[in-house]
């Protein structure tokens, strides 16, 4: 049974002009023109029986002109005024009464264009509620993904296609205070309820690590701080160590090598050889017969950094047999000094203790299995029954943040890549404040460049291996274009910056670019949703989540007016000195 029931008298006008995906509708009655609004929906009778073309009103115009190009003639001098009421409509899809075995199917394609003089009807009242319910994907899933209510009909719940949202990557953007964290929390709380949920949220500022952001199915990790160093069982206590031996050869050199040093090629070569030998030494020490003959310099095999430093120092001071009793300088004598200094400085820096000051736990061959199980197992088989893993990176130094987050992303991607297809369980990476580590420009920072490459690869190839990206940022203009171009779903809250609006506009199809005009005037918690996950590009009022991120805007004037307001600077100073909030 067709959902649309249009009376002929309900027609607002007829098609006057037709373009590829845009039509002009001529409205005869001024009263009907007054009731129309930009971004509201209309249905145009198709040339095929049982079909209506669905469009969004892009512009409403009332033109006034006179036949002799002289208004004065209208004042009793023979001329008369002409009025023309027209609306411009962007066609976005087709509503089909019956499609195969199914009734009332909405398709995001235009099989036909309307004929001239075809009637156009507003979709409002009962029709809009039925249409919104028809296009929702609720019926496709046992547990549907609800995001909120449609702005044009708050009685109709807005559902997204959960498969298409994560299969084809997503972007969530919005200026500070627009409700972006609220939107993320709404998604996370629904993901957490699924029986085999699997996603990691990169929490850069600790917004999602507070006491109010807790629920069944959510587990909180933090990057280990100086107070955790030297302890065993950090992983069981949700403190993540990311030992140096997880880094690839290029990542280690990005942190340690000064490429302007004339001895840089020698330093890189000696370091590579020494690390590889230490990995072989470690495997021999545990009696390994599996990996020794097939590892490379990039294989994540534990090794002793102290042994590497000792060998580099030996080579830096080496004397070999020569014509004199004292001998002659070795090939690398004096050429490794600066490299050794940088390596020792990094290894002794407690801010990087989570990487360099590891315990016997993290030097065990099975430790990587434990790390990947904690971060990548779905809810049912995860030891904490948590499918959503929130990792707090707020205490990680900003200069190594891109490298560290890129390291976690690379581990997830490569483990998925090497998992048998029938055992590969999909995982999503929710990248909060993505502009900090997936930037458009890295300013030739080698470490940041390597971190960015990991995300670019996931954006391009992740879908094949069940790895999804959700890019979350308040500055889309500063997010890498390659990554954004691979995203096919956009949830945009209010954007006040013209550069940010322009980025979103460029990513949308030409016939939908006009929708971005509403971005600066969206209400708090209201979003424009466009993409494969939503059959209809539309505005949605995001529902209030039950778990709360710590991102509420500080009430400056209210707090300044409160004579009982509290401060605790001494504790903050202690935390600064300890490099720990705990």
Number of strands: 21
Work out the strand percent: 15-25%
What is the 3D form? elongated
The Rg value, from CA coordinates, equals 31 Å
Mean pLDDT: 87
| Helical stretch tally | 16
Task: Please summarize the sheet with the most strands.
Answer: 12 strands, mixed
Strand numbers in spatial order across the main sheet = 9-8-21-20-19-10-18-17-11-16-12-13
Commentary on this structure:
With 582 residues, the protein is of the alpha/beta class. 29% of the residues lie in helices and 22% in strands. It contains 16 helices and 21 strands. The chain has helices spanning 30-35, 125-135, 162-167, 180-191, 249-256, 264-285, 305-316, 337-348, 353-356, 367-376, 401-417, 446-461, 481-485, 498-507, 556-560, 569-578; strands at residues 13-18, 22-27, 41-45, 51-66, 81-99, 102-107, 119-122, 145-150, 153-160, 170-173, 199-203, 218-223, 239-240, 319-320, 328-329, 388-392, 427-431, 467-473, 489-492, 526-531, 538-542. It has a twelve-stranded mixed beta sheet with strand order 9-8-21-20-19-10-18-17-11-16-12-13. It has a six-stranded antiparallel beta barrel with strand order 1-2-5-4-3-7. The protein has a two-stranded antiparallel ribbon with strand order 14-15. A hairpin with a 2-residue loop joins strand 5 and strand 6 (102-107). Helix 7 (305-316) packs antiparallel against helix 8 (337-348). The N and C termini lie far apart (62 Å). Residues 70-78 have low confidence and may be disordered.
């Amino acid at each position: 049974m067709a959902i649309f029931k249009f009376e002929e008298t309900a027609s607002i006008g007829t098609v006057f002009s037709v373009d590829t995906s845009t039509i002009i509708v001529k409205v005869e009655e001024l009263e009907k023109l007054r009731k129309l609004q930009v971004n509201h929906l209309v249905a145009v009778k198709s040339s095929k029986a049982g079909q209506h073309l669905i469009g969004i009103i892009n512009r409403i115009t009332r033109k006034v002109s006179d036949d002799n190009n002289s208004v004065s003639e209208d004042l009793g001098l023979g001329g008369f005024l002409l009025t023309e009421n027209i609306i411009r409509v962007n066609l976005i899809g087709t509503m089909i009464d019956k499609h195969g075995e199914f009734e009332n199917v909405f398709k995001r394609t235009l099989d036909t264009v309307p004929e001239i003089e075809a009637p156009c009807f507003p979709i409002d009242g009962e029709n809009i509620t039925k249409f919104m319910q028809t296009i929702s994907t609720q019926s496709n899933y046992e547990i549907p993904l609800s995001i909120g209510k449609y702005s044009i009909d708050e009685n109709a719940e807005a559902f997204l296609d959960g498969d298409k949202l994560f299969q084809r990557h997503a972007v969530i953007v919005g200026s500070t205070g627009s409700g972006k964290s609220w939107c993320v929390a709404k998604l996370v709380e629904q993901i957490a309820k699924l029986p085999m949920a699997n996603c990691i949220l990169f929490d850069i500022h600790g917004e999602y690590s507070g006491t109010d952001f807790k629920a069944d199915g959510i587990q909180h990790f933090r990057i280990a701080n100086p107070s955790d160093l030297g302890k065993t069982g950090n992983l069981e206590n949700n403190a993540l160590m990311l030992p140096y031996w997880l880094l690839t050869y290029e990542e280690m050199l990005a942190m340690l090598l000064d490429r302007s040093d004339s001895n840089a090629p020698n330093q890189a070569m000696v370091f590579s050889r020494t690390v590889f030998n230490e990995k072989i030494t470690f495997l021999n020490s545990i009696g390994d017969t599996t990996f020794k003959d097939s590892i490379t310099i990039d294989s994540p095999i534990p090794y002793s950094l102290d042994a590497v430093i000792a060998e580099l120092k030996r080579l830096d001071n080496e004397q070999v047999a020569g014509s004199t009793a004292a001998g002659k300088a070795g090939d690398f004598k004096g050429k490794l000094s600066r490299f050794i200094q940088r390596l020792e400085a990094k290894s002794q820096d407690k801010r990087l203790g989570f990487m360099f000051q590891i315990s016997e736990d993290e030097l065990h061959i099975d430790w990587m299995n434990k790390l990947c199980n904690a971060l990548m197992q779905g809810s049912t088989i995860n030891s904490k029954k948590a499918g959503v893993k929130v990792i707090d990176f707020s205490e990680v130094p900003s200069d190594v943040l891109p490298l560290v987050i890129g390291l976690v992303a690379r581990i997830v991607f490569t483990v998925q890549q090497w998992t048998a297809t029938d055992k590969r369980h999909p995982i999503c990476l929710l990248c909060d404040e993505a502009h900090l580590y997936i930037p458009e420009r890295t300013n030739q920072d080698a470490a940041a460049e390597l971190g960015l490459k990991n995300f670019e690869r996931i954006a391009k190839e992740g879908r094949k291996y069940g790895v999804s990206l959700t890019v979350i940022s308040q500055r889309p203009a500063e997010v890498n274009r390659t990554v954004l171009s691979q995203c096919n779903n956009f949830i945009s809250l209010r954007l006040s910056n013209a550069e940010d609006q322009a980025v979103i506009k460029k990513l949308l199809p030409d016939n939908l670019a006009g929708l971005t005009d509403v971005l600066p005037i969206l209400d708090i918690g209201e979003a424009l949703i466009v993409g494969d996950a939503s059959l209809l590009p539309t505005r949605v009022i995001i529902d209030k989540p039950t778990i709360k991120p710590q991102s509420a805007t500080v009430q400056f004037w209210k707090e300044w007016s409160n004579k009982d307001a509290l401060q605790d600077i001494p504790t903050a100073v202690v935390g600064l000195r300890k490099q720990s909030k705990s």
